[in-house]
Design a protein that fits this description.
single chain, alpha+beta, 21-stranded antiparallel sheet, 19 helices, 41% helix, globular
Length: 634
């Protein structure tokens, strides 16, 4: 039962790093869960399973018969309530709507393995040599409720079931979890998280092949997550996570709402969110996107401290690896040291800005992959220093010359300037002029001249694009060495990145159409963002099917040199089960309605968010239920 409580609390807070709404303030730290009723649950499960057609039709009666075994004496038309009592002696309190008291008590008796014994009016005990439960009947709250707990003190005679879950019922959620806090009890809530942290840390061990530095970074990252969890759980006034299976719209929705206690550290953190428009507010996903994300998230003092601590360990790890590396000469190691130093200086300077502001768009068309993205920085010149260090370390790097016009490189080589400037010579100034959006024109100009008979976005073995500078933006290129490029090439299809640096931003692109996408992104976001700020601080949209396909390609690459015959029988079984699940996923997502879209916003002093799951995601859930019915329930 303790594991269930830990899992729900972690799901509420760690998954979202933000939280929300409820009903009655409680002195003991408690999470309250509402399920809209067993009839509604069965309707939703039937809907999910039958999305797979005949297979779901055949397996639904199996699942339905199992559910009915749990529902003796239960009124399926009314909601259920579950309270996870986390303070003091942990307990789980089940509030079940009762249609028939005798059948309900017999149902509880069957699960506990002990006959009920009446010990007071409306109070029953179920006791075995190893456990005991109490059930209190509340007929006075017409209609009846049956409350099941381990500690009878957690269900007083005057216990009220509905007030804490009525807002969730009114919102129309199928399943929801809520927390409501006051300033009283904040120390108890912090203790809940600290106790959970001790439990988790006690089990933490180095992974196979993990270095001391890697283990230290993993431990530090876990500690940072618990500090976030501690603040969220202790300082939140109201929290709600609510799930809805919308059969009419054929989608699933997960809603979130968070309000912090007044004058708390969490409240101050929320007030800082999205106070200014993103530097990249004009960016949008493209027609061939498989992942698009943007962030405009503030970094308060706690998060800046956490990032600083992590950067310190990461820099130590990078230098330690470099010291023992045999891939570089002593002279090249000097350049790599500079790259590491300047890279972490850039990260630290960015942290001190107090915001993470950036976007990324991963695209795939006809099997060809690419990526474009950008991040706001304190000083773009620091990345030029990083690239210079990598060049000295032997990497294939082409650097732009800040302050020089676009055609400087061509003039140096004795070539004549032409009106049709290729990507190699920088492109037309109109593409790069601040505030001018011209993706189509950028694409036309960047392919106007070919090098050695190949287009400028040709494969990686082509000569890197000549860097160019216009209007304060410097263009560079870098080809990752083979030792470091296998994963990138697998994911993007290309080890070459084109990079643009300005005073306050770094842009990057790789893969299909990289140069044109990079220049279009620079053009679209060169001017300061204008218009209303809707408070969005995190947005992510992605298609699951293509991403699973990319992951499959990468897995096949990694396994290519492995002798799978040496796997243990257990490992072979696990691998087979994972493979079968991936195949079901690819089957479910084949129609293209496989999107997940998350958006988090600050609205006045609260955080609201919603994640929408398209119909193919629901279909996959139904297929997993069908698989359980076939393999476990028959």
């Amino acid at each position: 039962m303790r594991r269930i409580q830990v899992a729900v609390l972690a799901l509420l807070c760690l998954t979202f790093s933000i939280v929300s709404k409820c009903a009655v303030a409680q002195q003991v730290p408690t999470v309250t869960v509402m399920q809209s009723g067993s009839d509604e649950l069965q309707r939703d499960l039937e809907f999910l399973m039958k999305l797979s057609g005949k297979d779901g039709e055949q397996q639904w009666p199996v699942v339905q018969s199992v559910l009915e075994a749990f529902l003796g004496g239960v009124d399926g038309k009314r909601p259920m309530r579950i309270d996870l009592i986390l303070g003091g002696a942990p307990d789980t309190r089940l509030s079940i709507p009762v249609a028939n008291q005798n059948a309900f008590l017999a149902n509880v008796s069957g699960f506990v393995g002990a006959k009920e014994r009446r010990i007071a009016t409306g109070l029953y005990q179920f006791k075995t040599p190893t456990m005991q439960y109490f059930a209190r009947m509340l007929p006075s709250q017409n209609p009846d409720w049956g409350i099941v707990v381990e500690d009878r003190a957690n269900v007083p005679v005057n216990f009220q079931v509905l007030p804490a879950i009525q807002p969730l019922i009114n919102a129309g959620f199928d399943l929801a979890a809520t927390v409501e806090n006051s300033k009283v009890g904040a120390d108890d809530r912090r203790k809940v998280v600290l106790d959970l942290e001790k439990e988790v840390v006690a089990t933490l061990q180095p992974l196979e092949g993990e270095t001391d530095n890697e283990f230290a970074m993993r431990k530090l990252g876990l500690a940072h997550q618990f500090r976030e969890l501690e603040r969220i759980y202790a300082d939140s006034q109201q929290l709600t996570l609510g799930w809805t299976t919308d059969q009419e719209k054929k989608e699933g929705r997960l809603d979130l709402e968070l309000t912090a206690l007044a004058d708390s550290d969490l409240a101050k953190s929320i007030d800082q969110l999205a106070t200014k428009p993103s530097r990249f507010a004009a960016t949008q996903k493209t027609d061939d996107s498989i992942f698009f994300g943007r962030i405009n998230h503030s970094l308060d003092a706690m998060r800046q401290k956490h990032l600083g601590e992590m950067f310190e360990l990461m820099e130590q790890d990078a230098n330690s690896r470099l010291d023992v590396s045999t891939d570089f000469t002593d002279e090249q190691k000097g350049g790599a040291k500079v790259a590491i130093e300047k890279g972490f200086a850039m990260l630290r300077a960015g942290t001190q800005m107090g915001v993470i502001d950036g976007f990324i768009d991963v695209n795939m068309k006809e099997g060809k992959k690419g990526v474009v993205g950008a991040i706001r920085v304190a000083d773009g010149a620091l990345l030029v220093d990083v690239l210079r260090g990598l060049k000295d370390a032997g990497w294939e790097v082409e650097l732009g010359e800040a302050g020089k016009p676009a055609a400087t490189a061509a003039e140096k080589s004795g070539e004549e300037k032409t009106d049709a400037v290729s990507d190699e010579k920088a492109g037309d100034d109109s593409v790069e002029k601040p505030g001018v959006e011209s993706k189509g024109k950028a694409e036309e100009e960047t392919t106007a001249v070919e090098k050695d008979g190949k287009a400028d976005d040709a494969p990686a073995d082509d000569k890197p694009a000549e860097p160019a500078v216009t209007d304060g933006v410097t263009y560079h290129s870098i080809v990752l060495p083979e030792k470091f490029s296998a994963l990138i090439t697998s994911l993007i299809g290309h080890p070459k990145f084109v990079v643009a640096t300005s005073k306050d931003a770094v842009y990057y692109a790789a893969g299909e159409g990289a140069d044109a996408r990079l220049r279009a992104a620079v053009a679209a976001t060169a001017a300061a963002p204008a218009g209303d700020n809707d408070g969005t601080f995190l947005e992510a949209w992605y298609r699951v099917g293509p991403i699973i396909g990319v992951a499959r390609e990468e897995r096949e690459r990694r396994e290519a040199g492995l002798d799978l015959s040496k796997l243990t029988p257990e490992q072979k079984t696990e691998r087979k089960e994972r493979q079968e699940m991936r195949e079901r996923a690819e089957q479910a997502f084949a129609t293209g309605f496989d999107t997940i879209h998350t958006k988090l916003q600050r609205k006045e002093s609260k955080v609201v968010g919603q994640t929408v799951f398209a119909i193919d995601i629901l279909k996959f859930v139904g297929m997993e239920i069908i698989n359980v019915a076939k393999t476990k329930l028959q």
